[in-house]
UniProtKB/TrEMBL annotation:
Pfam families: PS_pyruv_trans. Coiled coil: none annotated. This is Polysaccharide pyruvyl transferase. It comes from Methanobacterium formicicum (strain DSM 3637 / PP1). GO terms for molecular function: transferase activity. The keyword Transferase applies. Transmembrane segments: none annotated. Residues 31-347 form the Polysaccharide pyruvyl transferase domain. Keywords: Transferase. The keyword Transmembrane helix does not apply.
Amino acid sequence: MENNTANHDLKSGGKSTGPRVLLVGYNGANNTGSEARLLAIIEDIRSLLGPTVEITVPTLNEENLRRYLAEDEHLHIAPIPSIFFFAIDKLVKQHDLVLLVEGSCYMDTWTSALLWAFLWATNRAHHHNKPCLAYAVDAGELSSLNRWLVKREASKTDLIITRTRHAMEKLQKTGVTAPITSTADCAYTFKEEEDHDFLNRIWPESSNGVVGLAVVDFSLWPVVIRPWGRKKDLYKWPYYFSRSTERKNTREKLIEGWARTADEIIKKHGKSVALICMEELDHPLAEDILGKMKNKDQCRIISSGQYNASQMTGMLSDLDLLVTSRYHAAVLSLRAGVPQIAVAHDPRLTSLYQDLKLYQDYFICHDAPNLWEDLRRTIDLLLANGDLEKDMLKEGLQEQVTLSQKNRILLGEFLKEKNISSLK
């Protein structure tokens, strides 16, 4: 595949008008959380380095990225191939600063390839003597090989800012020797457009109130690397979703459980149900859940493949209750104080719910033996009394926003230390 990485000097009329910053992350996946983070981080960079700072966003999916990121003379989109090593090396060499901007940075939950891309960017930055900063990222499960790689390569980062204390401690226990500090996720400072009452505008029939179910197909992950495979399992060559009888059974149980839960919410509480796809990849699961439901007319799929981060945040803010397997659904609904329950499958929601003091009563692991019974009981409890979490949500939001605002401060100090400033 041809390498189409951007030539910044040509795009800016033959000369650079500001420092060149490379943002390496999960960009262009139609993922609401990644979109909100990216836009918030661009705002942070411009506030510190001025409007003429040269920013490049590499992506495996240029078309999706252009849906929510407007390219201009100083903001560049750089398509890269699936086999990314040469392209990332070239981009790193062209820039003055490398930021790792993907929240799920130091984990192989989704695929080792994503982790390797971030570690490779760090490696190349170290090789080319370019400052490298991991910006409000997370750490999670790692295989033995990947734990060794993270220890070796992440230690070459100039500074790692984690979005939870748990992630910081995990990296330290892994043996990462780079300076590490913890704050909170960038999405807390995401400035959405005016999308108040958005849910009512797109779904006026739901005036009786809506419970949102932000679902994830746990059985899809991790994506594996193969030279070939079935077309229906292809994510983007050479990355394929893995399938097995066990995974198929897990998926079927997930579909049945969510469908039954949605029908109970509609029948028992008189609420409509939104099946929320925080990433476009969640949509097939949502379709299958809807297909199993008895009360399809009172349920609707709302997807990041159709709506941008501002619209999705507006929708989340209008819910009566959120049941989420997605980290950023919890984060982006928090500002509106929406009562929430986690059905979690990785450490990100675990850490967040511990920070919010919701872990003991409102957190359920996806493989809990009594998952659906526990979920039904907790839904009934919160729909009967939505104020039960009110104080915890308010206090948690204030704390997380305060921590999130430190990201920009730390970035400013880092830029000063590395002598990177706007060009006058």
